[in-house]
Amino acid sequence: MLLNRTRTALALAAAATVVLTTVSPASAESTVVADGADAAASRTDILKVRVAHADRRVEVKVRFDDLRKKADASLTVYVDSDPEANGPERVVGLPLFSGADYAMWRMEDWEHVGNEPVTCRYGADYRWRRDVVVLSARRGCFGKPDEVRVGMRMRDVADASHPVTDWLIGRRDFTEWLASGQPA
Ligand SMILES: [Ca+2]
Ligand SMILES: [Ca+2]
Predict the structure, then answer these.
(1) Which ligand places an atom closest to the C-alpha of 145?
(2) 69 CA from centroid of ligand 2 (Å)
């Protein structure tokens, strides 16, 4: 009996340590969204997304069903950084195949604005064998906002007569707002 109580106390102590680590004010806020296999007609069905707002950058990790170098699909990632202005302020278009380029643009009211892509530090890492794409952008790309939230849409036109669209969560939906790890 005494032994059991001791074990419980140890377990509680370990749990408390984990909580303290997670709520540290200097840590980045992150969220994971499981989108599920709701676009199974496409190999690039969005399955799971992790967004982290760190002190210097925003990182978006997307896992697909089956990412291949030969495909006819694209991912559009929307980054909302201003709650006062309708829609996302930035959009990144990424090919979901090998050999094409990605680019970041400005957006207002869900419309592209400007004739030139945004010039700032960002990049995409394609992990083909893991079916993962990681988009990473410096916070300066978004004007170093207090909070960001991210939405995205996959579009697959491999079968032109049956295009497949998969929005994360739902059409024009976003993750929760995520504060930066940067102290105010
Ligand atoms: Ca999905
Ligand atoms: Ca906005």
Answers:
(1) 2
(2) 33
